[in-house]
Predict the structure.
Amino acid sequence: MDADRSQMLQDRVRAARADDTPLAIRGGNSKHFLGRTVDGVALDTREHRGIVSYEPSELVLTARAGTPLAEVEAALTKRGQMLPSEPPHFGAATFGGMVAAGLSGPRRPWSGSVRDFVLGCRLIDGQARHLRLGGEVMKNVAGYDVSRLLTGSYGTLGLITEISMKVLPVPLHRRTLRIVIDAAEALRRLADWASQPLPISGACHDGNALMLRLEGGHGSVDASSSRLGGEIVDDAFWTQLRELQLPFFAGDAPLWRIALPMTRQLPALPGEVLIDWAGAQLWLRSEDSAAAIRNAVTELGGHAECWRGATAADTPFHPLPPALLALHRRIKQQFDPQGLFNPGRLYAEL
């Protein structure tokens, strides 16, 4: 049932501020495994839910933070539209959790990230003020784009209560190809194709073959499919990849998400690798140490996050250089001077 619980949430933050009580913000709790454990009183956003406005002709949707992501996507599907960044659900994701985590799916390199489509939001800050940031149109503004700054902050800067997002039409036609080549050849071809007008919206090497998703007009998809070759397979692969449900992700081996510049070079690390985002994102299953993995990735200009297998003493997210950490701390101080919101979720110092 749709309900505006912003006053209740604001009262909870006001009480926490008065008692100096840390808060652990939760929506669907679908991303509980990411980051460090928060020692705080649970603040659940799921009662604050519902689509506030949706203008299909304007390609803009506004919803409350606790709205199930599946509910938002169902409303968009009825009008032939979608969230372009293809965010994962991991079971019961909420609209606010999607923005707080800032995670994008296989379409990310070609369509953009969650951050790219956030137009505005409402936020309860560390002084219990209910702020309105940004708007509902794409435009240039002076100064910080605070709404997008909140994307990927994992709730450490405040409690997001409402988000306005730009949406896009669903592509007219879609086709998935499977081309049996090794990873090195896949990266070589993807680098060559990057400068060509191909309607690629997904590129993953699963260890055995290169999986390509083509999206667009029928003519463009048909022509590109004939040119690239391979066999046509089920599109369900991309949902399984987005939700980490492929066989690669099974088991208890430590799982690392590695972000790299577009390159043909892979880090020299022991373990199994799945290549996504045409080489810009790697999934690594490895028992190697965090230091060894991060050193190898840093040499290639990337960063590594431990998604599974980190201990309480570890830093799951890639450590920040001192100057960048100092900047994060100053931003945290401005939004949340008492450190109420998800303290330590990203880094112990925040």
The mean pLDDT is 94. The first helix runs from residue 6 to 19.
